[in-house]
Design goal:
32% of the residues lie in helices and 24% in strands. The protein is of the alpha+beta class and 208 residues long. It has a single domain, classed as Chemotaxis protein chec (3-Layer(aba) Sandwich), CATH 3.40.1550.10.
Length: 208
Amino acid sequence: MNSNKLNGNLPPEVRAVKEKLRELIRHAALSRLKNHADASEIEVREMDSGFTPGKILASNMVFILVSGDALRITFKVHFNTRMAKKLAFRIFGGMSAEDISEKQAIDYFKEYGNLVAGSVITHFGNFGVELGISLPLCTRGFYEVFSDYSETQFPVVTYSDFWELAANDFSLSCSALIEILDVAKLGRLIDYEIDEATADDGEEMDFL
């Protein structure tokens, strides 16, 4: 997989759409975690130099699909149960991470994935691109080894992005497989600016 070679063969507007999608998805992941984690400072970090797509990143992962006529995004959050309990216990009204069950810890990240996907849909709705959303699902992190992150540029532009969300006492891995089905419908995304005043709207987690 040679991302630089693939990018070099793409028209400038397609490269611009790819980069804007990367920015928007990362922003949604960061902003939703800031709203619902007990951490004052969270930063985006790149994966280490030895990382390769398909590597097992944690014991569990939640994934959710955002899709429409122009675009498909599979967003994943990779996590360990102990860290999930630490992030989730205040949401569930517990006094400590020990008060949280494994099911509650998983539900926390399923709802987190739902909020990230919902944020992405809202941004695209702002310039007239309609997208739908699947239910978030959780599985063992081992199954990441079966993921296909092959990059293509015709007829569908397919690529992936991996990053970490890190604070002083935790680090969370995220990934997105992005498939551009109709770049013409995404042209307005290039000049789209995220409105920070409305992007982080403090929406609450909602557990069924």
